[in-house]
Amino acid sequence: MLKVLLVDDEPFILQGLKVLLNWDALGCEIISTASNGLEAYEYIKNNQVDLVITDIKMPEMNGLEFLKNIRENGYSDLEVIILSGYKDFEYAMEGMKYGCAGYVLKPVEGEELTSLIKKIAKKKNELLEESKQMESMERAFMARNIIAMLFGKYDEINVSYIKEQMQLSDEIRFASIEFINPGDMDEEEEAEIRQTHRDLYELCRSLLGKDANHVVFDTSSDQNSHEIGLILCDYMYKEKKASEEEFLMYLRDEIYARFRLPIRILAGKKVNGITNLSKSYSTVRILKSFEGFRPKKDIYFYEDEAQVNQGGGVLCKQYIDDLIRAVELNDHKDISFRVSELFKEMRRLGIASETIKLNMDYLLFGLIHLAANQDDGVNQEEVLQYISESSFHEGVLRGSSEHLSSFAIEYAEYLSQLRKNVSGSILDDIENEVKKNYMNNISLRELSKKLYINSSYLGQIFKKKYNMSFKDYLTVYRINEASLLLVETDEKITKIAEMVGYKDSDYFVRKFIEIKGCTPSKYRKNKND
Q1: Rg, the chain, Cα only
Q2: Which of 172, 183, 220 is nearest to 200 (CA)?
Q3: For burial by CB atoms within 10 Å, which of 142, 211, 302, 362 has the most?
Q4: By three-state DSSP, how is residue 90 classified?
Protein backbone atom coordinates (compact mmCIF):
# COMPACT_ATOMS: atom_id res chain seq x y z
CA MET A 1 0.00 0.00 0.00
CA LEU A 2 1.26 3.48 -0.91
CA LYS A 3 1.21 5.73 2.17
CA VAL A 4 -0.32 9.07 1.10
CA LEU A 5 -0.12 12.49 2.79
CA LEU A 6 -2.64 15.17 1.64
CA VAL A 7 -1.56 18.82 2.05
CA ASP A 8 -3.86 21.86 1.60
CA ASP A 9 -4.80 24.87 3.72
CA GLU A 10 -8.48 24.53 2.87
CA PRO A 11 -10.18 21.78 4.96
CA PHE A 12 -13.05 21.21 2.50
CA ILE A 13 -10.51 20.44 -0.30
CA LEU A 14 -8.79 17.89 1.94
CA GLN A 15 -12.14 16.30 2.67
CA GLY A 16 -13.02 16.31 -1.02
CA LEU A 17 -9.76 14.56 -1.93
CA LYS A 18 -10.47 11.85 0.64
CA VAL A 19 -13.76 10.89 -1.01
CA LEU A 20 -12.82 11.69 -4.62
CA LEU A 21 -11.09 8.34 -5.29
CA ASN A 22 -11.38 4.72 -4.24
CA TRP A 23 -8.00 4.81 -2.50
CA ASP A 24 -8.07 1.14 -1.44
CA ALA A 25 -8.61 0.00 -5.01
CA LEU A 26 -5.59 2.07 -6.05
CA GLY A 27 -3.48 0.36 -3.40
CA CYS A 28 -3.21 3.57 -1.35
CA GLU A 29 -3.75 4.50 2.27
CA ILE A 30 -4.25 8.13 3.39
CA ILE A 31 -2.19 8.17 6.56
CA SER A 32 -2.54 11.88 7.44
CA THR A 33 -3.26 15.42 6.28
CA ALA A 34 -1.43 18.72 6.74
CA SER A 35 -2.51 22.35 6.33
CA ASN A 36 0.80 23.70 4.97
CA GLY A 37 4.24 22.67 3.73
CA LEU A 38 5.99 23.16 7.08
CA GLU A 39 3.51 20.90 8.87
CA ALA A 40 3.93 18.30 6.10
CA TYR A 41 7.73 18.47 6.30
CA GLU A 42 7.70 17.90 10.08
CA TYR A 43 5.42 14.90 9.56
CA ILE A 44 7.57 13.14 6.98
CA LYS A 45 10.67 13.51 9.19
CA ASN A 46 9.12 11.06 11.66
CA ASN A 47 6.83 8.92 9.48
CA GLN A 48 7.08 6.74 6.38
CA VAL A 49 5.38 8.48 3.43
CA ASP A 50 5.42 7.34 -0.22
CA LEU A 51 3.32 10.03 -1.91
CA VAL A 52 2.46 13.65 -1.07
CA ILE A 53 -0.39 15.41 -2.88
CA THR A 54 -0.03 19.12 -2.18
CA ASP A 55 -1.45 22.50 -3.12
CA ILE A 56 0.99 25.23 -4.14
CA LYS A 57 -0.25 28.36 -2.35
CA MET A 58 -0.28 27.84 1.43
CA PRO A 59 0.87 29.84 4.49
CA GLU A 60 4.06 29.09 6.48
CA MET A 61 5.64 27.07 3.62
CA ASN A 62 4.09 26.75 0.18
CA GLY A 63 4.08 23.58 -1.93
CA LEU A 64 7.04 24.61 -4.06
CA GLU A 65 9.16 25.46 -1.00
CA PHE A 66 8.15 22.14 0.55
CA LEU A 67 9.24 20.26 -2.57
CA LYS A 68 12.56 22.10 -2.75
CA ASN A 69 13.16 21.49 0.96
CA ILE A 70 12.62 17.71 0.88
CA ARG A 71 14.88 17.28 -2.16
CA GLU A 72 17.69 19.27 -0.56
CA ASN A 73 17.37 17.18 2.60
CA GLY A 74 17.68 13.79 0.95
CA TYR A 75 14.08 12.64 0.42
CA SER A 76 14.77 11.64 -3.17
CA ASP A 77 12.36 8.67 -3.22
CA LEU A 78 9.33 10.62 -2.00
CA GLU A 79 6.85 11.19 -4.85
CA VAL A 80 5.00 14.53 -5.00
CA ILE A 81 1.93 15.54 -7.02
CA ILE A 82 1.19 19.28 -7.19
CA LEU A 83 -2.36 20.62 -7.39
CA SER A 84 -2.52 24.01 -9.11
CA GLY A 85 -4.82 26.55 -10.66
CA TYR A 86 -4.28 28.09 -14.10
CA LYS A 87 -2.58 31.12 -12.52
CA ASP A 88 -0.09 28.85 -10.71
CA PHE A 89 1.12 27.17 -13.89
CA GLU A 90 4.58 28.79 -13.76
CA TYR A 91 5.01 27.57 -10.17
CA ALA A 92 4.05 24.08 -11.22
CA MET A 93 6.64 24.11 -13.98
CA GLU A 94 9.25 25.23 -11.46
CA GLY A 95 8.28 22.26 -9.32
CA MET A 96 9.14 19.87 -12.14
CA LYS A 97 12.80 20.88 -11.72
CA TYR A 98 12.72 19.33 -8.25
CA GLY A 99 11.41 15.99 -9.38
CA CYS A 100 7.68 16.55 -9.10
CA ALA A 101 5.84 13.44 -10.36
CA GLY A 102 3.22 15.58 -12.07
CA TYR A 103 0.65 18.30 -11.56
CA VAL A 104 -3.12 18.33 -11.74
CA LEU A 105 -5.19 21.42 -12.45
CA LYS A 106 -7.99 22.46 -10.09
CA PRO A 107 -10.78 21.60 -9.88
CA VAL A 108 -9.32 18.12 -9.62
CA GLU A 109 -10.70 15.48 -11.97
CA GLY A 110 -10.73 12.00 -10.47
CA GLU A 111 -9.75 10.27 -13.70
CA GLU A 112 -6.67 12.44 -14.22
CA LEU A 113 -5.47 12.01 -10.63
CA THR A 114 -6.15 8.25 -10.79
CA SER A 115 -4.04 7.89 -13.93
CA LEU A 116 -1.13 9.71 -12.33
CA ILE A 117 -1.31 7.68 -9.09
CA LYS A 118 -1.39 4.40 -11.06
CA LYS A 119 1.74 5.48 -12.90
CA ILE A 120 3.49 6.26 -9.60
CA ALA A 121 2.32 2.96 -8.06
CA LYS A 122 3.66 1.02 -11.04
CA LYS A 123 7.02 2.78 -10.77
CA LYS A 124 7.16 2.10 -7.02
CA ASN A 125 6.35 -1.57 -7.53
CA GLU A 126 9.02 -1.93 -10.20
CA LEU A 127 11.60 -0.29 -7.93
CA LEU A 128 10.50 -2.49 -5.03
CA GLU A 129 10.82 -5.64 -7.15
CA GLU A 130 14.22 -4.53 -8.39
CA SER A 131 15.28 -3.82 -4.81
CA LYS A 132 14.09 -7.27 -3.68
CA GLN A 133 16.00 -8.96 -6.49
CA MET A 134 19.13 -6.98 -5.63
CA GLU A 135 18.79 -7.87 -1.94
CA SER A 136 18.28 -11.54 -2.84
CA MET A 137 21.43 -11.50 -4.98
CA GLU A 138 23.41 -9.80 -2.20
CA ARG A 139 22.21 -12.36 0.34
CA ALA A 140 23.14 -15.23 -1.98
CA PHE A 141 26.60 -13.75 -2.59
CA MET A 142 27.12 -13.25 1.14
CA ALA A 143 26.01 -16.84 1.79
CA ARG A 144 28.51 -18.17 -0.77
CA ASN A 145 31.32 -16.30 0.95
CA ILE A 146 30.27 -17.56 4.37
CA ILE A 147 29.97 -21.16 3.11
CA ALA A 148 33.51 -20.85 1.69
CA MET A 149 34.74 -19.85 5.15
CA LEU A 150 32.80 -22.67 6.87
CA PHE A 151 34.37 -25.34 4.67
CA GLY A 152 37.83 -23.77 4.78
CA LYS A 153 37.86 -23.25 0.99
CA TYR A 154 38.37 -19.51 0.87
CA ASP A 155 40.78 -16.91 -0.42
CA GLU A 156 41.52 -13.27 0.37
CA ILE A 157 38.58 -12.11 -1.76
CA ASN A 158 36.16 -14.04 0.47
CA VAL A 159 37.80 -12.73 3.63
CA SER A 160 37.87 -9.11 2.43
CA TYR A 161 34.23 -9.17 1.35
CA ILE A 162 33.03 -10.55 4.68
CA LYS A 163 35.10 -8.06 6.65
CA GLU A 164 33.63 -5.22 4.59
CA GLN A 165 30.05 -6.40 5.08
CA MET A 166 30.15 -7.55 8.71
CA GLN A 167 31.07 -6.16 12.06
CA LEU A 168 33.32 -8.82 13.60
CA SER A 169 34.93 -9.48 16.96
CA ASP A 170 38.38 -10.88 17.65
CA GLU A 171 36.70 -14.02 19.00
CA ILE A 172 33.75 -15.54 17.17
CA ARG A 173 31.90 -18.81 17.02
CA PHE A 174 29.56 -20.53 14.58
CA ALA A 175 26.15 -21.54 15.92
CA SER A 176 23.44 -23.69 14.35
CA ILE A 177 19.77 -22.89 15.03
CA GLU A 178 17.62 -25.78 13.87
CA PHE A 179 14.48 -27.81 14.11
CA ILE A 180 14.22 -31.48 13.17
CA ASN A 181 11.37 -32.62 10.96
CA PRO A 182 10.04 -36.19 10.88
CA GLY A 183 11.04 -38.38 7.95
CA ASP A 184 8.81 -39.90 5.25
CA MET A 185 6.54 -36.87 4.75
CA ASP A 186 4.24 -36.34 1.79
CA GLU A 187 4.78 -33.47 -0.67
CA GLU A 188 2.38 -31.12 1.07
CA GLU A 189 4.03 -31.59 4.46
CA GLU A 190 7.48 -31.12 2.92
CA ALA A 191 6.39 -27.88 1.26
CA GLU A 192 5.07 -26.64 4.61
CA ILE A 193 8.34 -27.53 6.36
CA ARG A 194 10.40 -25.75 3.68
CA GLN A 195 8.29 -22.62 4.09
CA THR A 196 8.71 -22.78 7.87
CA HIS A 197 12.47 -23.03 7.31
CA ARG A 198 12.41 -19.85 5.20
CA ASP A 199 10.19 -18.09 7.74
CA LEU A 200 12.65 -19.09 10.48
CA TYR A 201 15.48 -17.58 8.44
CA GLU A 202 13.59 -14.29 8.00
CA LEU A 203 12.73 -14.18 11.71
CA CYS A 204 16.39 -14.72 12.67
CA ARG A 205 17.41 -11.88 10.36
CA SER A 206 14.76 -9.66 11.93
CA LEU A 207 15.90 -10.53 15.47
CA LEU A 208 19.53 -9.77 14.57
CA GLY A 209 18.60 -6.36 13.12
CA LYS A 210 21.73 -4.55 11.96
CA ASP A 211 23.62 -7.85 12.12
CA ALA A 212 21.18 -9.69 9.83
CA ASN A 213 23.98 -10.56 7.39
CA HIS A 214 25.51 -12.78 10.12
CA VAL A 215 22.67 -15.23 9.37
CA VAL A 216 22.93 -17.82 6.57
CA PHE A 217 19.96 -19.85 5.33
CA ASP A 218 21.13 -23.48 5.35
CA THR A 219 24.50 -24.98 6.23
CA SER A 220 23.49 -28.61 6.83
CA SER A 221 23.76 -31.55 4.41
CA ASP A 222 21.20 -33.54 6.42
CA GLN A 223 17.89 -33.47 4.51
CA ASN A 224 15.91 -34.01 7.75
CA SER A 225 17.57 -31.09 9.49
CA HIS A 226 16.54 -27.51 8.81
CA GLU A 227 19.33 -25.28 10.00
CA ILE A 228 20.00 -21.57 10.20
CA GLY A 229 23.67 -20.67 10.59
CA LEU A 230 24.78 -17.78 12.77
CA ILE A 231 28.20 -16.13 13.07
CA LEU A 232 28.07 -15.12 16.72
CA CYS A 233 30.27 -12.24 17.92
CA ASP A 234 30.71 -11.16 21.53
CA TYR A 235 29.54 -7.57 20.94
CA MET A 236 26.06 -8.89 20.04
CA TYR A 237 25.27 -10.08 23.55
CA LYS A 238 27.41 -7.46 25.31
CA GLU A 239 25.31 -4.73 23.70
CA LYS A 240 22.28 -6.33 25.34
CA LYS A 241 24.21 -6.66 28.63
CA ALA A 242 23.68 -10.41 28.51
CA SER A 243 25.79 -13.55 28.52
CA GLU A 244 26.18 -15.73 25.42
CA GLU A 245 23.76 -18.27 26.83
CA GLU A 246 21.20 -15.58 27.71
CA PHE A 247 21.46 -14.12 24.21
CA LEU A 248 20.98 -17.51 22.52
CA MET A 249 18.13 -18.34 24.89
CA TYR A 250 16.50 -15.04 23.88
CA LEU A 251 16.71 -16.10 20.23
CA ARG A 252 15.39 -19.56 21.08
CA ASP A 253 12.43 -18.14 23.07
CA GLU A 254 11.49 -15.70 20.31
CA ILE A 255 11.58 -18.48 17.70
CA TYR A 256 9.51 -20.81 19.87
CA ALA A 257 6.94 -18.09 20.53
CA ARG A 258 6.49 -17.69 16.76
CA PHE A 259 6.59 -21.28 15.50
CA ARG A 260 5.95 -23.51 18.53
CA LEU A 261 8.60 -25.90 17.22
CA PRO A 262 11.27 -27.76 19.23
CA ILE A 263 14.36 -25.65 18.58
CA ARG A 264 17.92 -26.54 19.52
CA ILE A 265 21.01 -24.36 19.22
CA LEU A 266 24.48 -25.86 18.82
CA ALA A 267 27.24 -23.36 19.57
CA GLY A 268 30.62 -24.39 18.18
CA LYS A 269 34.04 -23.75 19.65
CA LYS A 270 35.03 -20.10 20.05
CA VAL A 271 37.88 -19.23 17.64
CA ASN A 272 40.11 -16.27 16.84
CA GLY A 273 39.03 -14.43 13.72
CA ILE A 274 36.89 -15.19 10.68
CA THR A 275 39.66 -17.23 9.01
CA ASN A 276 39.24 -19.89 11.72
CA LEU A 277 35.47 -20.12 11.28
CA SER A 278 35.74 -23.59 9.69
CA LYS A 279 37.19 -24.93 12.97
CA SER A 280 34.13 -23.69 14.85
CA TYR A 281 31.83 -25.08 12.16
CA SER A 282 33.43 -28.54 12.37
CA THR A 283 32.84 -28.62 16.14
CA VAL A 284 29.14 -27.90 15.53
CA ARG A 285 29.02 -30.97 13.25
CA ILE A 286 30.60 -32.99 16.08
CA LEU A 287 28.10 -31.52 18.57
CA LYS A 288 25.27 -32.43 16.22
CA SER A 289 26.35 -36.06 16.22
CA PHE A 290 27.08 -36.13 19.94
CA GLU A 291 23.68 -34.67 20.79
CA GLY A 292 22.19 -38.13 20.92
CA PHE A 293 24.68 -39.10 23.62
CA ARG A 294 23.92 -36.16 25.89
CA PRO A 295 20.98 -35.17 28.09
CA LYS A 296 18.50 -33.14 26.04
CA LYS A 297 19.09 -29.38 26.15
CA ASP A 298 17.90 -26.30 24.32
CA ILE A 299 21.47 -25.03 23.87
CA TYR A 300 24.73 -26.96 23.56
CA PHE A 301 28.14 -25.27 23.89
CA TYR A 302 31.04 -27.26 22.48
CA GLU A 303 33.34 -26.33 25.36
CA ASP A 304 30.87 -27.73 27.89
CA GLU A 305 30.12 -30.94 26.00
CA ALA A 306 33.76 -31.73 25.20
CA GLN A 307 34.95 -31.14 28.75
CA VAL A 308 36.50 -34.19 30.47
CA ASN A 309 35.89 -34.79 34.15
CA GLN A 310 38.29 -32.45 35.93
CA GLY A 311 38.60 -34.86 38.84
CA GLY A 312 40.31 -37.39 36.59
CA GLY A 313 37.98 -39.69 34.65
CA VAL A 314 38.42 -43.45 34.82
CA LEU A 315 38.75 -44.94 31.32
CA CYS A 316 38.10 -48.68 31.01
CA LYS A 317 40.31 -48.76 27.93
CA GLN A 318 41.12 -52.48 27.77
CA TYR A 319 37.48 -53.52 28.17
CA ILE A 320 36.36 -51.11 25.42
CA ASP A 321 39.21 -52.16 23.11
CA ASP A 322 38.11 -55.79 23.54
CA LEU A 323 34.53 -54.83 22.69
CA ILE A 324 35.63 -52.92 19.58
CA ARG A 325 37.62 -55.97 18.46
CA ALA A 326 34.54 -58.20 18.89
CA VAL A 327 32.49 -55.75 16.82
CA GLU A 328 35.15 -55.78 14.10
CA LEU A 329 34.98 -59.60 13.95
CA ASN A 330 31.17 -59.51 13.96
CA ASP A 331 31.17 -62.09 16.76
CA HIS A 332 27.72 -61.68 18.33
CA LYS A 333 28.41 -63.98 21.28
CA ASP A 334 31.69 -62.27 22.13
CA ILE A 335 30.08 -58.84 21.75
CA SER A 336 27.48 -59.69 24.39
CA PHE A 337 30.21 -61.06 26.68
CA ARG A 338 32.45 -57.97 26.26
CA VAL A 339 29.57 -55.60 26.96
CA SER A 340 28.72 -57.53 30.11
CA GLU A 341 32.35 -57.39 31.27
CA LEU A 342 32.55 -53.64 30.60
CA PHE A 343 29.47 -52.93 32.71
CA LYS A 344 30.70 -55.19 35.50
CA GLU A 345 33.93 -53.20 35.60
CA MET A 346 32.12 -49.87 35.63
CA ARG A 347 29.86 -51.01 38.46
CA ARG A 348 32.89 -52.30 40.40
CA LEU A 349 34.60 -48.94 40.06
CA GLY A 350 31.42 -47.05 40.93
CA ILE A 351 31.93 -44.74 38.00
CA ALA A 352 30.01 -41.45 37.99
CA SER A 353 27.79 -40.45 35.08
CA GLU A 354 30.36 -37.97 33.75
CA THR A 355 32.93 -40.74 33.42
CA ILE A 356 30.39 -43.00 31.71
CA LYS A 357 30.25 -40.27 29.05
CA LEU A 358 34.04 -40.36 28.78
CA ASN A 359 33.99 -44.13 28.20
CA MET A 360 31.14 -43.93 25.70
CA ASP A 361 32.95 -41.19 23.76
CA TYR A 362 36.05 -43.37 23.58
CA LEU A 363 33.89 -46.24 22.29
CA LEU A 364 32.21 -43.90 19.80
CA PHE A 365 35.47 -42.80 18.20
CA GLY A 366 36.69 -46.38 18.08
CA LEU A 367 33.58 -47.44 16.15
CA ILE A 368 33.90 -44.54 13.71
CA HIS A 369 37.54 -45.47 13.16
CA LEU A 370 36.46 -49.04 12.33
CA ALA A 371 34.03 -47.82 9.67
CA ALA A 372 36.61 -45.49 8.13
CA ASN A 373 39.11 -48.36 7.92
CA GLN A 374 36.60 -50.46 5.94
CA ASP A 375 36.06 -47.83 3.24
CA ASP A 376 38.08 -44.64 2.73
CA GLY A 377 35.02 -43.03 1.19
CA VAL A 378 32.86 -43.43 4.28
CA ASN A 379 31.36 -40.14 5.40
CA GLN A 380 32.23 -40.05 9.10
CA GLU A 381 29.52 -37.48 9.82
CA GLU A 382 26.92 -39.86 8.39
CA VAL A 383 28.31 -42.66 10.53
CA LEU A 384 28.02 -40.42 13.57
CA GLN A 385 24.43 -39.66 12.64
CA TYR A 386 23.68 -43.37 12.23
CA ILE A 387 25.15 -44.10 15.66
CA SER A 388 23.32 -41.24 17.37
CA GLU A 389 19.99 -42.33 15.84
CA SER A 390 20.41 -45.92 16.99
CA SER A 391 18.68 -47.53 19.93
CA PHE A 392 21.88 -47.32 21.95
CA HIS A 393 22.23 -43.80 23.33
CA GLU A 394 19.11 -43.48 25.49
CA GLY A 395 19.68 -46.72 27.39
CA VAL A 396 23.46 -46.62 27.76
CA LEU A 397 23.49 -43.32 29.62
CA ARG A 398 20.99 -44.84 32.03
CA GLY A 399 23.34 -47.80 32.52
CA SER A 400 21.66 -50.41 30.29
CA SER A 401 24.02 -53.10 28.98
CA GLU A 402 21.16 -54.57 26.91
CA HIS A 403 20.96 -51.39 24.82
CA LEU A 404 24.69 -51.30 24.21
CA SER A 405 24.81 -55.00 23.33
CA SER A 406 21.92 -54.65 20.86
CA PHE A 407 23.51 -51.62 19.25
CA ALA A 408 26.99 -53.20 19.03
CA ILE A 409 25.62 -56.30 17.27
CA GLU A 410 23.66 -54.16 14.79
CA TYR A 411 26.74 -52.01 14.15
CA ALA A 412 28.86 -55.12 13.59
CA GLU A 413 26.41 -56.15 10.84
CA TYR A 414 26.68 -52.66 9.38
CA LEU A 415 30.49 -53.03 9.17
CA SER A 416 30.08 -56.48 7.64
CA GLN A 417 28.03 -54.98 4.82
CA LEU A 418 30.72 -52.37 4.24
CA ARG A 419 33.24 -55.18 3.83
CA LYS A 420 31.11 -57.24 1.44
CA ASN A 421 31.08 -54.49 -1.20
CA VAL A 422 27.50 -55.34 -2.16
CA SER A 423 26.75 -51.94 -3.64
CA GLY A 424 26.54 -52.96 -7.32
CA SER A 425 23.85 -55.62 -7.15
CA ILE A 426 21.93 -53.81 -4.44
CA LEU A 427 21.79 -50.58 -6.44
CA ASP A 428 20.60 -52.52 -9.50
CA ASP A 429 17.75 -53.79 -7.33
CA ILE A 430 16.99 -50.23 -6.20
CA GLU A 431 16.86 -49.01 -9.81
CA ASN A 432 14.43 -51.79 -10.69
CA GLU A 433 12.25 -50.94 -7.69
CA VAL A 434 12.10 -47.31 -8.80
CA LYS A 435 11.17 -48.30 -12.37
CA LYS A 436 8.32 -50.49 -11.14
CA ASN A 437 7.05 -48.37 -8.24
CA TYR A 438 8.10 -44.74 -8.84
CA MET A 439 4.43 -43.66 -8.85
CA ASN A 440 3.99 -44.95 -5.29
CA ASN A 441 5.21 -43.45 -2.02
CA ILE A 442 8.50 -45.37 -1.71
CA SER A 443 11.41 -44.53 0.56
CA LEU A 444 14.97 -45.74 1.00
CA ARG A 445 14.14 -46.92 4.51
CA GLU A 446 11.39 -49.22 3.22
CA LEU A 447 13.64 -50.53 0.44
CA SER A 448 16.45 -51.25 2.90
CA LYS A 449 14.11 -53.49 4.90
CA LYS A 450 12.96 -55.25 1.75
CA LEU A 451 16.55 -55.85 0.60
CA TYR A 452 17.88 -56.72 4.07
CA ILE A 453 20.55 -54.02 4.15
CA ASN A 454 21.34 -51.30 6.66
CA SER A 455 19.52 -48.09 5.62
CA SER A 456 22.41 -45.79 6.60
CA TYR A 457 24.91 -47.78 4.55
CA LEU A 458 22.49 -47.96 1.63
CA GLY A 459 22.15 -44.18 1.73
CA GLN A 460 25.93 -43.79 1.60
CA ILE A 461 26.56 -46.09 -1.36
CA PHE A 462 23.57 -44.67 -3.23
CA LYS A 463 24.80 -41.09 -2.87
CA LYS A 464 28.34 -42.13 -3.80
CA LYS A 465 27.18 -43.65 -7.11
CA TYR A 466 24.51 -41.14 -8.16
CA ASN A 467 25.88 -38.01 -6.47
CA MET A 468 22.41 -37.29 -5.07
CA SER A 469 20.10 -38.59 -2.39
CA PHE A 470 17.55 -41.31 -3.14
CA LYS A 471 14.81 -38.73 -2.68
CA ASP A 472 16.29 -36.46 -5.36
CA TYR A 473 16.87 -39.47 -7.65
CA LEU A 474 13.21 -40.46 -7.34
CA THR A 475 12.10 -36.90 -8.10
CA VAL A 476 14.25 -36.71 -11.24
CA TYR A 477 12.93 -40.10 -12.40
CA ARG A 478 9.33 -39.02 -11.86
CA ILE A 479 9.81 -35.73 -13.71
CA ASN A 480 11.46 -37.53 -16.65
CA GLU A 481 8.51 -39.92 -16.83
CA ALA A 482 6.14 -36.94 -16.71
CA SER A 483 8.07 -35.34 -19.60
CA LEU A 484 7.38 -38.40 -21.77
CA LEU A 485 3.70 -38.35 -20.88
CA LEU A 486 3.46 -34.65 -21.75
CA VAL A 487 4.81 -35.30 -25.23
CA GLU A 488 3.18 -38.65 -25.95
CA THR A 489 -0.31 -38.10 -24.49
CA ASP A 490 -3.00 -35.41 -24.26
CA GLU A 491 -3.63 -36.01 -20.57
CA LYS A 492 -4.16 -32.96 -18.37
CA ILE A 493 -1.20 -31.83 -16.28
CA THR A 494 -3.04 -32.58 -13.02
CA LYS A 495 -3.64 -36.14 -14.24
CA ILE A 496 0.01 -36.59 -15.28
CA ALA A 497 1.12 -35.35 -11.87
CA GLU A 498 -1.04 -38.02 -10.26
CA MET A 499 0.21 -40.71 -12.68
CA VAL A 500 3.86 -40.14 -11.67
CA GLY A 501 3.17 -40.05 -7.93
CA TYR A 502 2.28 -36.46 -6.98
CA LYS A 503 -0.92 -35.73 -5.11
CA ASP A 504 -0.22 -32.00 -5.09
CA SER A 505 -0.13 -30.68 -8.68
CA ASP A 506 1.31 -27.32 -7.57
CA TYR A 507 4.24 -29.11 -5.95
CA PHE A 508 4.65 -31.18 -9.15
CA VAL A 509 4.82 -27.98 -11.26
CA ARG A 510 7.45 -26.46 -8.93
CA LYS A 511 9.60 -29.60 -9.15
CA PHE A 512 9.17 -29.74 -12.92
CA ILE A 513 10.36 -26.14 -13.30
CA GLU A 514 13.27 -26.83 -10.94
CA ILE A 515 14.49 -29.78 -13.06
CA LYS A 516 13.41 -28.89 -16.61
CA GLY A 517 13.64 -25.10 -16.40
CA CYS A 518 10.08 -24.42 -17.59
CA THR A 519 6.46 -25.23 -16.77
CA PRO A 520 4.94 -28.54 -17.93
CA SER A 521 2.60 -26.73 -20.34
CA LYS A 522 5.48 -24.80 -21.90
CA TYR A 523 7.54 -28.01 -22.14
CA ARG A 524 4.67 -29.73 -23.98
CA LYS A 525 4.22 -26.76 -26.32
CA ASN A 526 7.95 -26.54 -27.14
CA LYS A 527 8.22 -30.27 -27.87
CA ASN A 528 5.10 -30.35 -30.04
CA ASP A 529 5.88 -27.22 -32.09
Answers
A1: 32
A2: 220
A3: 302
A4: helix
